[in-house]
Amino acid sequence: MDTCRELEELTSRLNARDRNINLTSDAIVQTFLDCPMPSWFKDTDLRMVVINSAYTKWFGITIGEYEGNKDNKVHKLDVSDYRKNDLAVLAANRALRFKEQARLRNGKSCELTVIKYPVRLGGTIIGVAGLVLGVRVL
Q: What's the predicted TM-score (pTM) here?
């Protein structure tokens, strides 16, 4: 009888741990999605995986337009610095801060201050994420 009770307690603890892991994962994803500043995640081939709603609000580009594509396919200006900066982050294997040119949804050009950083899973870099820290309309 003790063995059955011990197994039930172990199962209950494991189920509670799984619920906590799922809650934490959901909270992390929601934090990214709810961030009031544009943020994004690209794979190591620099193809867009996800953008948040602030990105769409600021730049007028949806995840449906961007997902699986590289920057030059969706932005209507020279974005070669985006790629150069993403590659610099991958090479440095650490977060770096950049100034990048962009075009806002209303068509105005701007200079963004962005931080880009490598994203790791199990110690392996799986992509580059970024977050807009500030904007200056030109």
A: 0.81
